[in-house]
Inverse folding.
């Protein structure tokens, strides 16, 4: 099975909101469609849970605030799928991906 959206590595801390409470999480990779987060000390959000993330990609000063759904959990982390990014947020993520080496 091949991926539709290219993933690239990115290692940064993000704010992950679960039921309105902020927790610190760390990214592994990002695509236009979503992001993989390593769980640190936050409680587990079940598959299908709706959460929010806040982060700034390297090389940008703009903070991206995005809603996301938990689509899977494995390897001590969770795969999130973004919901309705703004055109500007999409462009920031796509520009970052275009200028970074691919993971898979």
């Amino acid at each position: 099975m091949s991926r539709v959206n290219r993933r690239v590595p990115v290692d940064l801390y993000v704010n992950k909101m679960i039921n309105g409470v902020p927790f610190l999480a760390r990214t592994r990779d990002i695509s236009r469609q979503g992001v993989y987060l390593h769980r640190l000390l936050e409680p587990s959000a079940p598959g299908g849970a709706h959460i929010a993330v806040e982060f700034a990609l390297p090389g940008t000063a703009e903070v991206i605030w995005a809603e996301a759904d938990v689509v899977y959990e494995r390897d001590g982390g969770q795969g999130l799928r973004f919901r309705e990014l703004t055109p500007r947020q999409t462009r920031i993520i796509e520009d970052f991906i275009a200028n970074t080496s691919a993971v898979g």
Helices lie at 87-98. DSSP finds one helix and seven strands in the chain. The chain has a mean pLDDT of 89.
